[in-house]
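ok here's Xylose isomerase-like TIM barrel domain-containing protein:
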Amino acid sequence: MSSRKPTNQLGIATLSLGNWREHKLEPRLKAAARAGFQWIDLFDECWSAYLADHGLDGEGAAAWEATEEKLAVARKLGALVRSLGMRIACTQPLRTIEGILDPVERRATLDRVARRFPFMRAFDTDLVFMCASIRRDAGVAPADLKRVARDLAELGDMAAAYSRADGGRMLRIGYEGLSWAARNNTWSSSWEAVRFANRPNVGLVVDAFNVLAVEFADPYNPAGHGRIFPTLRESLEVLAGSMSALVAIVPGDKIFFFQCGDAERMNLTTFPPPTDPTVPALLPWSRSHRLYPLEQDRGGYMPVELVAAAVVATGYKGPLSLEVFSHTLNLPGEDVPDNHARRGIESLHAVVDIIQTLPPFWKGPAELKQAVDRVTQRLENTGDIKTARL
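and the structure:
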């Protein structure tokens, strides 16, 4: 058994404390601090709304216009977070960045990332990250590994040049596989792009939900899994093998951020697949039905502990952070941030507890079997696990 308790601090995305349309940012931050979080993942829409609350234009690209007024608001936000005993871990998400073919559009897109650098200094954070591109039009080549790696390398160079120029700590670029991305929808394909970029300040972002959505789950299967294999045990064995490879291949210091989340097992009578061919099949599930880890009483059913244990086993020292999108976050009411902060911190403590007793499955076949036995038993013991209704 693994006996060493993880020392990673705990974090949460601002969007996972309440929707910005219903809930101001400051009360959400205070709810996170009361619950005991130490790190905040600043979501773009939350920053835009915070600017609007200060009478400034935060729509789209305007949110990252480095005027003195906006930088002053960013410094105010960073100071507020620090006064609550927390830090801002990163800003995100950047989308449709890599693989752009037109040189003019490509240059403008990379420069769009660099426009964040002054704000990162103002927030007192060093990490910004992007999701793998979901574009499939003729203007992008997301399957061109050489091109994607070149884009990541250039972004790393731009961040390094900015850091040398202002003398601050090194700014870092993170790259996250997205489960419905055009190419880099797995941790291994995303890691391939990061490795080929070959820059010390370019690293991998691992999101447990996105890993599990590709390598384990199928929200349109009544069993919830069976994306590849029909039985729960087979699905868990394949996942554990993949996570063992992550431990063997990816150095912990090249994982720049880890996000943790579960999801609801859906009731297919009320959750049919999307009929619009332009809507990725996983998108409605991802955007409205994620849960905090191990919330089995709410319909959670995914083996989050296998992903979390593997990330920690690489030697990753950063936060264990929550990124959850859910219809419950859109509800009005002053109690929503506190309720979600409480649920979130309890879930992360449960993750810490479970991974320190999970057999170290990355060490060999015997340990892998023991871990799969353990997780299979946990998931099967849910019985007729609660399924979500819209």
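+1. The chain has one domain: 10-380.
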